[in-house]
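Worked example

This section walks through a single chain of length 302. The input is the sequence exactly as stored; nothing has been trimmed or padded.
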Amino acid sequence: MRRWLRHHRYAFLVALRRLLSQPFSSLSNMLVIALTLAIPILAASILLSAQPVARQVAVSPEVTLFLKPDAAAGSTQQVAERVKNEYATEIDSVRIVPRSQAYSDLKRDPNWADALAALPGNPLPDAIVITLKEHANIAQHAATLVQEWKKWDEVDLVQHDSAWVQRLEAILSFVRIGLGLLAAGVALVVLATVFNTVRLQALTQREEIAVARLVGATESFVRLPFLYLGALTGLISGLASIALAVLALTPLNAALARLASSYGTRLALQLPDALSLALAVVVVAILGALSARWSVTRNTRF
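Given that input, the structure is written out below as tokens.
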């Protein structure tokens, strides 16, 4: 066990010395990887910040039933009770908006007051506002209910702006797929960068490796410093990418705060949780080690 620890300690120190012996080259490679990694981190921050907005939109969508103008007296209450009884498990609340109340609200609006004054009477129908419960696929579920309610005799029009909800879900789905492809591209960049770095190191120390083999060094002894080199490159690059993302979020949140305040709301981009970031750094370090192993195996066969 002690021998194994000495072996790994030696390999780690050798890898660290090789990084420090070529600071400009090492920093350049790490900066390329860090900048590349910062992009999906920022994209994940935008996605995570947009998801609560989407959930808030989808939690309580409303459907409005407009009754026919010649509907019998009391039919509004009957339709509301029918909705409550037949769809009790699918709705959250039902609210009746009498035509007189809607007419009074519009008359108080100066944009509509002149137009309504020119009309001989109240043209508005009674309305029933239905708030749906949360559902896994709320847009499709709401569309199904709308088609059912349109068939009722007392109902003249059913209003539900589901198209923009569907567009929002489609945009978020597109962003998730794009983020996955971006992560795959980042993985390729990490592999290619570390592979080339280790390749140059192996070619530079070609004679040293040959001598080590002549005196009985095992393949694991030769490869281990390069594996630590790749892992350290990935680890430091991953930590640097998080720092770059934090720096980038500062001006982005400042601009976003000004935009959100103009709409009377607050919105800020936040990094993914610490566990996800730590896992991402570990994955990058593992990719670096795997790429280093592949490179040293391929370029030290002599």
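What to look for: The chain has a mean pLDDT of 77.
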